[in-house]
Amino acid sequence: MKKTAGEKLRDLRNAFGLSQAQFGDRIGITKGSIASYENNINPLNKSAKYKILQATGIGDEYFDTDMQLLEAFRKYNIDPANLKLKSLTDTIIAFRNSVKDFANNTQTPKFLNTKIEYLKFIAECENAECVFIKVVGKEAQPLANNGDILIVSQDENPENTNWIIAKIGDDTLIKQYLLTSNDEISLKSSSDDSYKFSKAEFEKEVKVLGIIKSKISIEIL
């Protein structure tokens, strides 16, 4: 039976003898994303494949065909007895036309290959799966205005005070993630606009789509 791309990713990671967290840290993909790929929850996307190619030398053909791991090692001239991960220098940025487009995947994103150092300089987003999202109308207020660019890391595990893009049912929200007690999470954008959850409720009801790392405000002069 043909293995899925996620199963092949697990085989590759195990060949390097690394945990999901260790492998993800080395190639700039979160542990949560690695787990979602390996368990076929989310498809292995173009950005992730590019990072894997840079770090391991294994290209798309391994994931997209019925090629086995040992065949891939032979094709890409890799010695399975001496596996080493390479340092990343480049990354792929995805561009989305709106927050709605990002949340609902209504259009095929555009991609740009760039240096990680450039991304870090302009966006405070270094070694992660980053998406540049253009804000349309009032969809990101009060955090951002029409025409602004949100730089979003596709990470499902926010930390206290992070701003996130999330879905609750069919609704897309941009809120600040706040740990208000040992077992309570608040999503808040203003003093009179907040959602409160226990940790169990949050995990069940809220899907975190990404963490907003920075914002670029556009002003035409």
Automatic annotation (TrEMBL):
<dbReference type="Pfam" id="PF01381">
    <property type="entry name" value="HTH_3"/>
</dbReference>
<dbReference type="InterPro" id="IPR010982">
    <property type="entry name" value="Lambda_DNA-bd_dom_sf"/>
</dbReference>
<protein>
    <submittedName>
        <fullName>Transcriptional regulator, XRE family (Peptidase S24 LexA-like domain)</fullName>
    </submittedName>
</protein>
<dbReference type="GO" id="GO:0003677">
    <property type="term" value="F:DNA binding"/>
</dbReference>
<dbReference type="InterPro" id="IPR001387">
    <property type="entry name" value="Cro/C1-type_HTH"/>
</dbReference>
<dbReference type="InterPro" id="IPR015927">
    <property type="entry name" value="Peptidase_S24_S26A/B/C"/>
</dbReference>
<dbReference type="Pfam" id="PF00717">
    <property type="entry name" value="Peptidase_S24"/>
</dbReference>
<feature type="domain" description="HTH cro/C1-type">
    <location>
        <begin position="9"/>
        <end position="63"/>
    </location>
</feature>
<dbReference type="InterPro" id="IPR036286">
    <property type="entry name" value="LexA/Signal_pep-like_sf"/>
</dbReference>
